[in-house]
Amino acid sequence: MSENKDPHVPQGTQGVKFVYDFTEGNKELKDLLGGKGANLAEMTNLGLPVPPGFTITTEACKVYLESGEEPAALRDEVSAHLSALEKAMGKKLGQADDPLLVSVRSGAKFSMPGMMDTVLNIGLSDKSVQGLAKQSGDDRFAWDSYRRLIQMFGKTVLGVDGELFEDALDKAKQAKKVTVDTDLDAAELKKLVTKFKKIVKSEAGRDFPQDAREQMDLAIHAVFDSWNTDRAKLYRRQERIPGDLGTAVNVCSMVFGNLGPDSGTGVAFTRDPASGQQGVYGDYLQNAQGEDVVAGIRNTVPLADLEGIDKKSYDQLMQIMETLETHYKDLCDIEFTIERGQLWMLQTRVGKRTAGAAFRIATQLVDQGLIDEAEALQRVNGAQLAQLMFPRFDEDAKVEQLGRGIAASPGAAVGKAVFDSYTAIKWSRSGEKVILIRRETNPDDLDGMIAAEGILTSRGGKTSHAAVVARGMGKTCVCGAEDLEVDTKRRRLTVNGHVVEEGDVVSIDGSTGKVYLGEVPVVPSPVVEYFEGRMHAGADDADELVKAVHRVMAYADRVRRLRVRANADNAEDALRARRFGAQGIGLCRTEHMFLGERREMVERLILADTDEERENALKELLPLQKKDFVELFEAMDGLPVTVRLLDPPLHEFLPDITELSVRVALAESRKDHNENDLRLLQAVHRLHEQNPMLGLRGVRLGLVIPGLFTMQVRAIAEAAAERKNAKGDPRAEIMIPLVGTVQELEIVREEAEQVIADVERSTGVALKLALGTMIELPRAALTAGQIAEAAEFFSFGTNDLTQTVWGFSRDDVEASFFTAYLEKGIFGVSPFETIDKDGVGKLVRDAAAAGRATRPDLKLGVCGEHGGDPESVHFFHEVGLDYVSCSPFRIPVARLEAGRAASTSTGSDHR
Ligand code: PEP
Ligand code: MG
């Protein structure tokens, strides 16, 4: 590709070719020529009217940015291409009597609209402006072009504050009492040029360069430099565009839309980017250059009006748009200029579109025979589907923003502020909609969270309790809104001088993290209605969007290899997950079954001093656990259900240490001994840990609390036997959490097998219960080969694995310092959100391979939050896992992305 076939074009260092004529490139060369350059080349080769020019590659930019100097051979290569351009145009750059003028435009691989620099009209000087005036027969046009050059060049190349030029232009208009710049005549523009040159001299400390080649070279460097402006860096970080790609530079002969009423400039789309509808979409501005349209200085007219203004150009444009859409097989957006009745194409690219339009366009193009189903899958993505699934705030609504936190669980929720779970439940029972506002939530808040429309916390990140539970329930959540001072005692929050009292209405947007005062109107999602089965894609009046989503999901399901399961702990969630397409449960967190009234039973279990007390406590819990499992197995009949034995630190089931200490101390001072409180306090002290996430939890609990795990295993086995007796098809799998070594697993396994055998004997029902483990500690991953000897399946717990591999406390880091990490570009996205492929991912890949080497039929899945993250799903597909498991609401996204990962694209470059 970098071979240079043209002997007249000098080679760059190490034989690299740094400059490509538009006739040499094509649309596949975006890495090298940037999106704009590659597409200009493609249009040139299609025979469309593109002004001639050439592209300096991103490789040249990279050399310049790394070394601070352009590659040694670039100057000669540019000279050779410029000479060829001058020959083709029959005039020289900046030639005094008839100047060739060029534009110098940035153009990276991925579109970064408005982020980088462009300079137009290069080649004009005090002399050549006269030549241009003579050649065009239009003094005004020549002087207007010159003042534009000095203005743009001054601002972007010489770093002069753009306001100074704008102010001078405004003053000139005021002096003449006009409002639009087209009303300034040649003499006034000439004066403005003198003024602009003075501004340059005083602000930049140098004269505006009169040498055309110097103008061009400086502009090229300025475009290179613009890759690293703060706003460009910020944009890249947000859009997750790598920082080392560099920009290409397009040098293109100028065509003019400002040569009078038979000239103009415009933008067009081959379809409506908001709906996907075919038609004539775009804007046109007579007698103007491109930046006038963007700047909104004068009012544009709808593109359809061009038909009346210049029918010939309009017809040609329509023809070209059809050619482009058929050629690119997609919606294209276009920039064009008409110079005295001659149409020129300045840019095209595959256009950005709304999430809804993406689905509609993909299926429309399949129907038109332009793309196949595999390609249609590449035209949409999980993030777009997720966007379509959440109710949204009405964009036209008037809002008062209170603050902003982390967008933890998408959606739009409105309700009265409440500051404790009790009030949340009480108010919601009486029909009120509430937003539960806490500093942070804990398992005690679960009922309050269920009762609330949405959850807002001032602490915690995307994997904090509030975030994980809210996502699990598909409930809107904004967390870590640190500006909000939440005072649960006084039942109010303060932010930027506002006080929100209990009962005041607030609105929270879990897709943006924004928090509003008052009620913002909400629109429901038809796509969720469809997944819930309340809207049918086959119905005659079905929404076009729903039909498109239905078809794309069917393609994805047909091709995907990864199965998709749900993280669900109760029958209601399990049934929803099934409706959404879950093929089983990959993680039932049993700790969620020990809350509410059952908490006291667990408390009794922990406090038991004798075997008898402990056994009594376990006996109380057993039937309740069994009932939970019967319901779950029934809801998921015929599909696998992975039940994880108890995981979190036990003290989570005990009262808060400070509160209890105060209570006991007060009682003591009143000489009012409460034996139970005293014992409780001792237990709480005994179980208190500095690092509970690294303490007595997971398999460790099962090993030190006799009877706990065996009670759970018995409940699972008895529930499975009961379902079998009821002619059901239960497919339970028992999962041991936080295993670090095979010995732990072996002990639990032996005990479990005995219990299962016992239940089989007593019920007379043969049970096939798979026993496996989570891989969520580095040691487990590193010794996966050994662990597989005792495990029939692995489920990667990537939340804990990320926490332990990075040494990041998952409940704290996102709200405390991740923002700084993201700003510094240490990572583009939280590793708790998207799997860190090089670190955590490497352990997953290696552990999967080691496990399968020991046990070829080892079943492999993932049940951390990453199981529902689009990019991570692709990774899990690639490393050969069997399934991903995620919260019910993310199941359609995981199905879609699993399909996208498995389908082979026919080529287009869709991000
Ligand atoms: C995990 O660690 O990835 C996991 C699924 O378990 P939990 O989030 O419940 O710790
Ligand atoms: Mg875990």
Would you kindly provide a written description of the structure presented here, covering whatever features stand out?
With 911 residues, the protein is of the alpha/beta class. The chain has four domains: 13-253, 2-Layer Sandwich (Dna Ligase, domain 1), CATH 3.30.1490; 264-350, D-amino Acid Aminotransferase, Chain A, domain 1 (2-Layer Sandwich); 391-524, 3-Layer(bba) Sandwich (Glucose Oxidase, domain 1); 560-649 and 689-902, TIM Barrel. It contains 36 helices and 31 strands. It has an eight-stranded mixed sheet with strand order 12-22-21-14-15-16-17-13. An eight-stranded parallel barrel has the order 24-25-26-27-28-29-30-31, surrounded by six helices. Strands 1-2-5-3-4 form a five-stranded antiparallel sheet, sandwiched between helices.
Name the CATH superfamily assignment of the largest domain. Answer: Phosphoenolpyruvate-binding domains
Please state the second-level CATH architecture of the largest domain: Alpha-Beta Barrel
Global structural class: alpha/beta
What best-fitting shape do the alpha-carbon axes yield? elongated
Helix percent band? 40-55%
Proportion of beta-strand residues: 15-25%
Tally the helices: what do you get? 36
Distance between the termini: 24 Å
- The number of E-state strands comes to 31
Rounded mean pLDDT score: 90
Low-confidence parts: 1-13, 905-911
Query: Strands of the biggest beta sheet: in what spatial order?
Result: 12-22-21-14-15-16-17-13
And the CATH topology of the largest domain? TIM Barrel
User: What is the gyration radius calculated from CA atoms?
Assistant: 33 Å
CATH level 1 class label of the largest domain = Alpha Beta
What's the number of structural domains?
4
Ligand set = phosphoenolpyruvate, magnesium ion
The profile of the biggest β sheet is:
8 strands, mixed
